[in-house]
Design brief:
about 425 residues, three-stranded mixed β-sheet, globular
Length: about 425
């Protein structure tokens, strides 16, 4: 009954380009541009439709309250009176990137036979550190059955934890016992390393993982310095396959040896820097695609349109597909609004291996439900948000009303 479920974050109505994420090259480059929240949310919904068409199981997470009035109140101000920088943090829609929502260990890997989820503290960036409470509320509802799930609060904020974006799992099949790979950063460069090894070790203990089946691997400083702020910008795993850039890890040889030892049939697919320079891999989000196994068993990579538009990347993809490599199919999706803010297809989803029947059905979707959500987005989400208008009272009212309409339609008014 266990299967992989992709939980995608619905892009919130406050989606804007404030350039808040230092170290995220795309976010910094597009700072101050006019965003299109309605288009962004519809792009994400269309990506979920692609997943469903492939035969995958699909869930959702909901936008968080924005502006974050409680955070501003604790700072002695309000959205109307806050300095622009504080207002931008309080209006961020970055919770749409569900890969940072939590770290997930499926039941086959844990000592108590339950799926464990730990909400990420995202302490490195002010705008993201606001997210854990609202995310935890959703996790408690979606995964409420204590027979099947254990939901943990965030790691104490002395140690940075950015969730599943720095965590991978390898196994013969999703429902089988696997190994869990935690990737942490150590940086002396211009950009911060966001995942601390202490946080990763704490999560492994909380999730009751077998220490012999856990790997802690350091992300290369070169990758962080190039803009790979999360490991999922340079590597992704699925079942027996680890797909990574040549410069993703600090000690690649030791990592591969451990995976070969622990995972029967392990396959390592490396993209050489000589064929796809690190800068091209990061710009195109080649590794931030969703690597998935549809029911037919044909390993599929879901990529953003930017990958097809990057000559070196698409050339490598075509050569790999023409050969006998483990990735047999590629789907291309348009998530340009998310990409411009620094998040690709994989950023938008959290992978949870579970029995879908044990998840609160309000968080599960089919095509009909996605159509209903899309209609709410078309009616209520702002069409555009100029960065200079983030504190406009009528816009703030529209954003709060839009979220309320979605929660009401999904019978999740308790999240208000």
């Amino acid at each position: 009954m266990l299967q992989e479920i992709n939980f995608d974050g619905i892009v919130g109505p406050s989606h804007n380009y404030a350039g808040l994420s230092f170290g995220n090259v795309a976010s910094m480059r597009h700072a101050g541009e006019v965003s299109e929240p309605r288009r962004a949310a519809l792009e994400g919904i269309d990506k979920m439709r692609v997943n469903l068409a492939l035969g995958l199981t699909q869930g959702i997470f909901l936008p968080h309250p924005r502006p974050h009035r409680g955070w501003l109140a604790r700072l002695g101000t309000s959205i109307e009176e806050a300095e622009p920088a504080l207002a931008a943090n309080a209006m961020s829609a970055s919770a749409m990137w569900a890969a940072n929502a939590a770290t997930v260990s499926p039941a086959p890997d844990t000592a108590d036979g339950r799926c464990h989820l730990t909400a990420a503290n995202l302490r490195t960036m002010p705008h993201r550190s606001l997210e854990w409470r609202a995310m935890l509320d959703q996790l408690f509802i979606a995964f409420a059955d204590p027979r099947h799930f254990a939901v943990h609060g965030p790691i104490p904020p002395a140690f940075g934890d950015e969730g599943a974006a720095n965590h991978m799992r390898l196994s013969g099949a999703h429902g089988e016992r696997g190994i869990e790979l935690f990737v942490y950063g150590v940086s002396g460069g211009a950009f911060p390393a966001r995942q601390h090894v202490e946080a990763s070790r704490a999560i492994a203990r909380l999730h009751l993982l077998d220490p012999e089946r856990v790997i802690f691997a350091q992300q290369s400083e070169e990758a962080i310095a190039a803009g790979a702020f999360h490991n999922d910008v340079v590597a992704v795993a699925n079942e027996r396959v680890l797909f990574a850039h040549e410069k993703a890890f600090a000690d690649k040889a030791t990592l591969i040896a451990r995976c070969e030892q622990l995972v029967p049939g392990f396959e390592y697919v490396e993209v050489p820097d000589a064929e796809v320079p690190l800068a091209d891999a990061i710009k195109s989000y080649l590794f931030n695609g969703q690597l998935v196994t549809p029911p037919g068993g044909e390993t599929t990579l879901i990529l953003p349109t930017e990958a097809r538009q990057t000559v070196s990347v698409w050339g490598w993809i075509e050569r790999h597909l023409a050969g006998n490599g483990p990735i047999r199919r590629v789907e291309v999706v348009d998530v340009r609004q998310s990409m411009a803010n620094g998040g690709g297809p994989a950023c938008l989803r959290l992978r949870v291996v579970a029995d879908a029947a044990t998840v609160d059905p309000r968080f599960m979707v089919d095509l009909g439900k996605l159509d209903r959500i899309a209609e709410i987005v078309r009616r209520h989400w702002p069409e555009q948000i100029p960065h200079s208008e983030l504190q406009r009272p009528t816009l703030i009212g529209e954003i709060e009303a839009a979220r309320a309409a979605l929660l009401a339609a999904l019978d999740l008014g308790q999240l208000l």
